[in-house]
Design brief:
There is one protein chain. By secondary structure, the chain is α+β, with helices and mostly antiparallel strands. Helix content is about 35%, strand content about 20%. The strands form three sheets. Strands 4-5-7-6 form a four-stranded mixed β-sheet. Strand 6 and strand 7 form a beta hairpin. The relative contact order is 0.11. The model has no long low-confidence stretch (mean pLDDT about 95).
Length: about 190
């Protein structure tokens, strides 16, 4: 009987066209399956490499093509990719950072998945804006990513290498508009 449950849930997983799953999402797909059987089947889905466990209650479809930024949003909500990762994505910074940093109004945490580091930096709720939904994930607009970086630098939590930035890719009017929404920043010359 468990084999038919397993085949049914695998079929539903692939038909869903999802690539990231919570335990709740999977449980909803397996509504007819008894609770004890469900958790046994969840272990089987990971051991047979249908799903990869990212962390407690969060899974990735093995063989999917999920962007790391989508995983960053999924691991810790609410959050948006920012700082060097967003600046690189928008072409403002040529160097790709060794970690993917995101801003969140929640407590700061760092998570590691498949040797990739996802860092979540706390920002005031009043500064949690200036991001867009692009290609399936939330990412800071380039002007906001730079301001987030400058803000953290003013607090001694980051370093800006100005010589590595191509500021010609920024919208100057948007940058100035956004800058007015930030508190005064010490040591940033803005």
């Amino acid at each position: 009987m468990e084999t038919s449950y397993f085949a049914d849930i695998v079929k539903k997983i692939y038909q869903s066209r999802l690539e990231l799953f919570t335990t709740k999402t999977l449980r909803d797909m397996a509504e007819a399956i008894p609770q004890a059987t469900f958790f046994s089947m969840l272990n089987r889905l990971t051991s047979q490499k249908v799903l990869q466990k990212l962390e407690r209650d969060k899974y990735l479809l093995v063989g999917g093509h999920v962007h790391d930024f989508h995983i960053a949003n999924f691991l810790y909500e609410p959050s948006y990719v920012s700082l060097e990762a967003a600046l690189n994505f928008h072409g403002v910074l040529s160097q790709f950072p060794y970690e993917i940093a995101s801003m969140t109004p929640r407590k700061p945490v760092t998570k590691t998945v498949d040797e990739k580091t996802f860092r979540y930096v706390r920002i005031k709720k009043s500064l949690f804006w200036g991001y867009d939904y692009e290609k399936g994930f939330l990412i800071a607009q380039p002007e906001k990513a730079l301001l987030d970086l400058l803000y953290l630098t003013s607090k001694g939590l980051a370093i800006v290498h100005v010589d590595e930035l191509d500021v010609s890719k920024l919208d100057e009017a948007r940058f100035k508009k956004y800058m007015k929404k930030f508190p005064p920043m010490k040591g940033t010359d803005i």
